[in-house]
Design a protein that fits this description.
By secondary structure, the protein is an alpha+beta fold. It folds into four domains: 66 residues; 156 residues, Beta-Lactamase; 190 residues, Alpha-Beta Plaits (2-Layer Sandwich), CATH 3.30.70.1230; 114 residues, Thrombin, subunit H (Beta Barrel), CATH 2.40.10.220. It is 39% helix and 28% strand. The chain contains 13 helices and 25 strands. Strands 10, 11, 12, 13, 14, 15, 16 and 19 form an eight-stranded mixed beta sheet that branches. The chain has a six-stranded antiparallel beta barrel with strand order 20-21-22-25-24-23. Strand 13 and strand 14 form a beta hairpin. Helix 1 packs parallel to helix 5.
Amino acid sequence: MSDEQIACPHCGYEQPAVVYCGRCRVHVLHYGGLKSALARFEAGLGQMRTHVQTAAPTYQPALDSLRSLGDALRGLKGNMERLSRAQREMTTLAEVGRMINSVLTMDKLLDLIMDVVIKAMFAERGLLMLKDAVTGELTVHAARDMTTESQAGTESRLTISTNICSKVASEGKPILATDAQSENQFQGMQSVMAHNLSSLVCVPLKAKSGEVIGVIYVDNRIVAGAFTEDSVELLAGIANQAAIAIENARLYESVQTETKARMSLQRYLSPNVVDDVMKSKEGTLKLGGTKLDCSVLFADICGFTPLSENLDPEQVVRVLNEYFTAMTDIVFRHQGTLDKFIGDAIMAVFGAPVAMPDHASKAVAAAIEMQQEAKRLREKAEQEGLQGFHMRIGVNSGQVVAGNIGSPSRLDYTVVGDTVNVAARLEPLAPADGIVISEATYQQVKDLVKADKLPPVQVKGRTGLVEPYAVFDLLEREPSDTDKKNLRRHDRLEVSLFAIYRDATSSRMYQGSIKNISRGGVQLSTREVFPLGTEVTLSFSLPNGQKLTDVGGKVVHVLKLVDDKGKDYCKLGIEFTRCADADRERIVNAWRASSFRGTAPKPS
């Protein structure tokens, strides 16, 4: 305590400096003592400063080391966090791969993928879209909480920006939005604004070939910044696993479908015909009473009975097997169907079960080659000291009924009708090594063959006369003016390119698949139907990855078709009306690159 007397600020009583006044017990400010204490503290602080300044050179390396250790510790902590995150992601991806690669049923697989994505991304909503195999259009195959009801009782609708998904599918690059409502790239997308989307991620599903087969999309309508670049990497990793699983499921389904179709077709077609049918993607054709326009060919060995009497049974079998094998190969080479063997005769059909517009020319070309092969076999037999044989052929064209004919225990696929009967009657009219065709067949091949008209004849089962023609060979001719007009002006490259397009009168974007492309235009498969003359704008990437945007074109051809699921689609022939020379050269370079790789475009 100091001896200094101070007055109480409340009652004025003077007394030594104390904490409380002895008379009124009111707190007394100990100014004197506080001042002395402050002076002592300042003196001590000065001494400490002097000591620190004196000792600083000694401790500075230690301080620097501590600072470096702190920086290293913070870096190590960051690395540990990244390693921990990477380990969690690897564990997640491994678990995803184990789960989805154990499922081969497509619907179950896609639902499982969507469940995994929602859980791993902590997403509010999400969906998975795949490209349509025919048109390239993106269609939703699995979704979680992506629909909304506009009014009670009305049909639910998806609340998603198709522009985002189309962009990702087209460019093959992911899109991330941490605050979509304020980011410039999303300002023009009405659905993003209307549905109040805050955070979103969309990544492509890429097959092993690099082709984009679909997209995975997740979003959050409430929390901005819900997804980061790390989220994109995780979702892209899941998408890679998912794409492999989807390809495996598709392959499994394809094998299952083909196996089932083969088992069905093998009941009434030979294995070779089954292969031809499966290759033509008609494995699911419906049989039983179908009317078709086709050509029927009958081929028979002249005088086979006396010929066989001069040969041993083993020689007869060998000659017939060699003959049937050679003739069957010719029928198949001209895309015909071997209907049946009738003793030493052959019945073949062109245009069934797979329809073809040029069935008559294929049948006649096959007949000519069969006679040439018969001559070779005859000369071979004579060189071996055996008696050769001659063959005659009859061909007729017209409508037949194709289908399964027989009993429940024995069914055969064949064609029946007047066209078949006339073809069978024409064959005996042919001379040895000759070919006789009907008037109906001749009218379809008259510009292709050398033929003479024969006198009209009456055949069994017909009231009127039949006007046959004897065919000698195929004509060698120059292309007609019509043929030249139908030739393509530009070489075309067969492709499968995802395209985004719109017509000139609307801002709505459509999706389609470019099936072939040339310097002058494209063929586009789509679910949308546009009339001839419609102006469209397309954006797509070439096989080498170069992107073409806002290419203008005009619809010059429309072909309406139905896919194997019974859904309507069409092929649009689009001629370029606005395409930069540089873009046309890119198309030509893509064409050349493909031809060098051994996948040259189809000839004009």
